Write the structure tokens for this entry.
Amino acid sequence: MLLAIDTSTRAIGIALYDGNRVLCENTWISKNHHTIELAPSIDQALSHVGAESGDLKAVGVAIGPGSFTGLRIGLAFAKGLAISQRLSIIGIPTLNILAEVLPVQSGTRSVAVLEAGRRRLAVGWYRAKDGIWYPDGDLQNLAIEEFVEMITSPIYVIGELTGETRLRLRKTKGIILSPVNCVRRPAVLAELAWKRWRKNDVDDPGALKPIYLHYGDPIPG
């Protein structure tokens, strides 16, 4: 069984997955109480499915971009659990979790976004090829106005979109997904991590680091 943890932003998610079923999935918007909410929520999820931490084989964790504090808390918890329980750990870029749920047609493009604070967005661009979404360029930290101006051709838009951003995007050629379809699902993170774990493509808990995106300092996707 694999535990998935995503604390990239105020939207927190956890899931339990066994390769055949999503055993448990929980998402909520935190009031920046990640530290006190995460561990009890995981204990409750394990209890709900009649499992214990000793039943886990691996942990998948979202590594950003996202909030400095949120990423630090989630990654520290995942690393501590992996080391103490001798679990495999798999880090998954947060924006990949969003892009994964979009329909894939060769040649189509998508863009995934997260709130970055101060009316800015963490933005990742993707292009579909051979049934997979591939990162298409660097991650970016953009003002809402800058982001909207870049949507000049048909493209799927998914992620943390405020009412204001949605209103602005309606005037573009973007294909804007509904709020329900924009939820960053921890079950998707779990499945991505599970696939890597089955291939023994795991990370070193000591070397795994979060992706921090700074204004004016793009990081390769």
